[in-house]
Write a structure and sequence with these properties.
- By secondary structure, the chain is of the alpha+beta class.
- The chain has one domain.
- It has three helices and five strands, in the order βααββββα.
- It has a five-stranded mixed sheet with strand order 1-5-4-3-2.
- The chain is globular and about 45 Å long.
Length: about 110
């Protein structure tokens, strides 16, 4: 299954990491933007000045959550989507969003080089 990867037009900008993770978890651009616009829960992200939002997906028998992490940009005004992933099950409320280990490692590298 080939997904159309998003491009950085308008006020939404995508990192290479987010495009890679969207492909890995089979999330489309529209699905990630829906999580941004109609989130069920908002949390503070793991990186400084980042935010994470969640929306439930799946079925009652096999629940999943779709998470996305983003940062608000000052110039140009907009949103940079840093990462998106699918979490199996239900995550604990009020704690940092659960992020897979490989994603954490890549995010730490990205933060060090920016």
């Amino acid at each position: 299954m080939f997904l159309k990867l998003p491009n950085g037009t308008g006020k939404i900008f995508w990192t290479k990491h987010s495009k890679k993770k969207m492909n890995q978890y089979r999330l489309s651009e529209k699905r990630v933007l829906r999580v941004l616009r109609k989130a069920e829960r908002k949390e503070e992200g793991i990186a400084p000045e980042t935010f994470a939002q969640m929306q439930t997906a799946g079925t009652k028998k096999h629940p999943t959550e779709i998470w996305m992490m983003y940062v608000l940009l000052r110039k140009p005004k907009g949103i940079r989507i840093i990462s998106a992933w699918r979490y199996p099950g239900k995550s604990p409320v009020g704690q940092l969003p659960p992020i897979p280990e490989d994603t954490l490692e890549e995010l730490e590298k990205m933060i060090k080089y920016t």
